[in-house]
Amino acid sequence: MKMVKSLILGTAVAFAATAGAQAADLPVKAKAVSYVKICPQYGPGFYYIPGTDVCLKVGGLVFAEAGFYASGAITNLGNGPTWSRDDTALQWRTRGYVSLDARTATAYGTLRSFILGGFEQRDTNGFVGINQAGAAFIQFAFIQFAGFTAGTANSFFDFGSNYLTLSVSSNPWNWTNLFAYTANLGNGLSATISLEEATTTRIGVPGTVAGVGGTQQQSPNIVGNVRLDQAWGSAQIMGAAQQARFAINAAPANHTDWGYAIGAGIEIKLPMLGAGDTIKIVGVYSEGAVEYTGLSGSPYGGVAGVGLGFNGGATFGTVTDFNNAVGNNSATDASSIMVQYRHFWTPTVRSSFHAGYNEARNIIGAGSFGSVQVVQYGHSLAWSPVKDLTLSLDVLYTEVDMNNNETDKLATWFRVTRTF
């Protein structure tokens, strides 16, 4: 009996040893390795580029849209046709963007570079790039370091974004090449001084010589703001000085004058009305710097002037920074006021309401001096059924009264937007 027990025990030991040896030869499942290291200090989506200390966020946006009379009342003249034509009632557009945001911590603060660009789009006028410029485009490309910003970015005159999908004529909105410095004064208070290219804000002067005149640049625009950001919202005062060069009485295009714009804006959070609710008010006054009032409704402005009218692209008149039609060097006075309110009905459904007014005086029209008033009312209804997907429907009413020519138009626009 002892012999049998010893035999069974020995066999079990031998079997266990053999099994253990075989198990040691089998492949062992390795622990999961995180090949992407997250950069939590800059928010979600940032990760270290392998082998570097650079944190990178890759994003993008795609939208598809269609509507009636999306260009509203405002057209750009002298800068090529806009992507939507006034004589085309039904318009379509699709566009895609890619963004790259790279940041590195340094002894002087964060070093940041940002790029936002897009590709050939499909719209009512065919395959064109942004502003009819080609197959690809860069909208923003700038570097920020130790308070400095250099590159193509939003003008530091601007205050926040438009709540509607459709562009509106009373919202200052320009991006341009610039060199700027922002000083952080503490407690959410900052001040910025910026030297900016005038391509998107200077709108030309009649009587120019050989296409030089109002488009000639010898000085950058000088832009400054003081901004306050607090838990209740934001506020800003801003100013800009802009040079114009043009001819008087057919003389060489060497006359120099300066225009200016001043403005203020405030955006207040209204959680008592709804989570995420805000109201924004922006007002601007200018002399010889009309586009700072947002009259064209476009970030590209118009170097030869802003024309207004509906009839097959024809205009009632043209607004320029200076009126030299009769040998007189007269600055155009312009002003604008805009009120926008955004209300969240539910966490996924929101409405944005807009009311805006523009006025420009001492402008050209039918060979004489005149004025123009633009009134706009709009509403945007947006629904985000899932994260990063938004469906919006905009309605914008525009009324233009220019040199005794009155007209109005109702624009409607539907857009599907996916961000990532």
3D architecture notes:
The structure is a single chain. 6% of the residues lie in helices and 54% in strands. With 420 residues, the protein is mostly beta strands. The protein has a domain at 62-77 and 162-419: Porin (Beta Barrel), CATH 2.40.160. The strands form three sheets. A 16-stranded antiparallel beta barrel has the order 2-4-5-8-9-10-11-12-13-14-15-20-21-22-23-24. β23 (389-402) and β24 form a beta hairpin.
Write the layout of secondary structure elements.
Blueprint: H1 2-25, E1 47-48, E2 55-68, E3 74-76, E4 90-106, E5 109-119, E6 121-123, E7 126-128, E8 136-145, E9 148-154, E10 175-186, E11 189-196, E12 221-230, E13 233-246, E14 255-269, E15 278-287, E16 306-308, E17 317-319, E18 322-323, E19 330-331, E20 333-346, E21 349-365, E22 368-383, E23 389-402, E24 405-419
Antiparallel strand pairs: 1-2, 2-4, 2-24, 3-16, 4-5, 4-6, 5-8, 6-7, 8-9, 9-10, 10-11, 11-12, 12-13, 13-14, 14-15, 15-20, 16-17, 18-19, 20-21, 21-22, 22-23, 23-24
